[in-house]
Specification:
Bound molecules: pyridoxal-5'-phosphate
CATH class of the largest domain: Alpha Beta
CATH topology of the largest domain: Aspartate Aminotransferase, domain 2
Strand content: 15-25%
CATH architecture of the largest domain: 3-Layer(aba) Sandwich
Strand order of the largest sheet: 4-10-9-8-7-5-6
Number of strands: 15
Number of helices: 14
Largest sheet: 7 strands, mixed
Number of domains: 2
Enzyme class: transferase
CATH superfamily of the largest domain: Type I PLP-dependent aspartate aminotransferase-like (Major domain)
Order of helices and strands: HEEEHHHEHEHEHHEHEEEHHHEEHEEEH
Pathway: Amino-acid degradation; 4-aminobutanoate degradation
InterPro entries: 4NH2But_aminotransferase_bac, Aminotrans_3, Aminotrans_3_PPA_site, Class-III_PLP-dep_AT, PyrdxlP-dep_Trfase, PyrdxlP-dep_Trfase_major, PyrdxlP-dep_Trfase_small
Cofactor: pyridoxal 5'-phosphate
Keywords: Aminotransferase, Pyridoxal phosphate, Transferase
Shape: globular
Mean pLDDT: 96
């Protein structure tokens, strides 16, 4: 890894334009949010829902401000998008400057340097020192689609394998790749074929070692598909929507070794787990996994829409000229923001911040777990932490999912100015995906709110 910026001295503490504190001054949602909700209902499709319908007017660091003047500590970060902080100064500056210079040309008509620079940064920061190529697109699902396209072209094979509890997006192909039909796919078929769902590693519920879980997955791939028909295996190193499952040690490298042996392209969907979220640039690194292709999106451009597929040159270059692209893919403003994100991660040592956040959060959640037996497991790495909630008294036996407790806690926290997200195949996971700007003091404050919420569960 080469330094892109070596600060001469320790960077000054960031200055925030919004006080980093929660503040509730109306009912939640407040009157102005209610008015906007009424306008929205007349013009926005009912298919687009909002977890917490407070309308946000301003955001900075780890705090959201709504139209009624309420402030929320944001443990969602737009689902892990504003990883380096809301309206982070260097992102704002880089994007604003780019808006003055060039907003759009379309890279496939007349190219520009920012796209090339993002590809260089991704080549240097994704796992492995092999030669790499990148294509930039607009969204995570589009990155998944392109990864699959490229793998099929490279291998000349048809089948796509994913893991149980996976989430890969909302386009036609990715709906077929998700584990959960509802709400993502219900009624939206017919779906893409040749997609196979193989067993995953979910240590809390399957109790398997990495080697045993990998053997089970490989057994499925060999019997149900057959290696000679399999183009790619797409895997989230830490599953996101599924509930932050951290696979057992050895699981991912064993799958990669099997894929390499059989000419299958193994693709890391790092859309939620990547870009410094876990204290490394990409979560794959924690597991000693060097994927063939890596998908990035969410946190890559500080909140602007950008995504990419990065991987082995011989695989990426098997796509013919003109085969990849799209009108907005690799937009110059989004690319300028992404360059600022990489620079900020390195100048402000945000990998260490992610680790710091994980330590504080996990310690606090351990204290809660000792007192509330609905917490079945605490898991995650860095600033990607979750708790899985079970029915009281079942934590060490049947582990009966407790989605009601998750809903109650999310609602309680929102009323107190803490924005939390649920997750999980069974809807029984509370996830913490804060921006890396969140201080230990804000985390402790949110943990107190959560403590009251657990006490109120009775
Ligand atoms: C969010 C997400 C996607 C889809 O990304 P979009 O930008 O919403 O299309 C795919 N995979 C994972 C792991 C995600 O978290």
């Amino acid at each position: 890894m080469t330094d892109i910026q070596t600060p001469a001295e320790t960077p000054a503490a960031p200055v925030y334009s919004v006080a980093q504190e929660r503040r509730i001054v109306t009912a939640i949602p407040g009157p102005k949010s209610h008015e906007l909700q009424a306008r929205r209902a007349k013009v926005v499709s009912a298919g687009v829902s909002s977890a917490l319908p407070v309308y946000i007017e301003r955001a900075n660091g780890a705090v959201l401000v709504d139209v009624d003047g309420n402030q929320f500590i944001d443990f969602g970060a737009g689902i892990g998008v504003t990883t380096i902080g809301h309206t982070e100064a260097s992102v704002v500056e880089a994007a604003a400057a780019q808006l003055q210079d060039v907003i759009h040309t379309l890279f496939t008509i007349t190219p520009y340097e920012e796209y090339v620079r993002v590809a260089e940064l991704l080549a240097e920061r994704t796992p492995g020192t092999h030669e790499k190529r990148t294509v930039l697109v607009n969204s995570g699902a589009e990155a998944v689609e392109n990864g699959v396209k490229i793998a099929r072209k490279h291998t000349g094979r048809r089948a796509v394998a994913v893991l149980d509890h996976a989430y890969h997006g909302r386009t036609n192909l990715t709906m077929a790749m998700n584990y959960k039909a509802h709400p993502y796919a219900t009624g939206f078929g017919p779906f893409a074929g040749d997609v196979y769902h193989a067993p995953s590693s979910y240590p809390y519920r399957d109790g398997l070692s990495g080697a045993d879980a990998a053997a089970r997955t490989i057994g499925y791939l060999e019997k149900v598909i057959g290696a000679s028909d399999l183009a790619c295996l797409v895997v989230e190193p830490i599953q996101g929507e599924g509930g932050f499952m951290v696979p057992a040690d050895g699981f991912l490298p064993m799958l990669q070794a099997w894929c390499t042996e059989h000419g299958v392209v193994m693709i890391a969907d790092e859309i939620q787990s990547g870009m410094a979220r876990t204290g490394r640039y990409f979560a794959s690194e924690h597991f000693g996994w060097t994927p063939d292709l890596v998908l990035s999106a969410k946190g890559i451009a500080g909140g602007l829409p950008l995504a990419g597929v990065t991987g082995r040159a011989e695989i990426m270059d098997s796509a013919h000229a003109g085969g990849l692209g799209g009108t907005f893919g690799g937009n110059p403003v989004a690319c300028a923001a992404a360059i600022a994100v990489f620079e900020s991660i390195e100048a402000n040592d945000l990998l260490a911040e992610a680790t710091r956040i994980g330590r504080t959060l996990t310690a606090g959640l351990e204290r809660l777990k000792a007192r509330y037996d609905v917490i079945g497991e605490i898991r995650g790495i860095g600033a990607m932490v979750a708790i899985e909630l079970v029915q009281p008294g079942t934590g060490s036996t049947t582990k009966v999912p407790n989605p009601e407790a998750v809903s109650a806690l999310v609602a309680h926290a929102a009323q107190q100015g803490v924005l939390l997200l649920s997750a999980g195949t069974f809807g029984n996971v509370l996830r913490f995906l804060p921006s890396l700007a969140v201080s230990d003091a804000l985390i402790e404050d949110a943990l107190h709110v959560l403590d009251d919420g657990f006490a109120a569960l009775g």
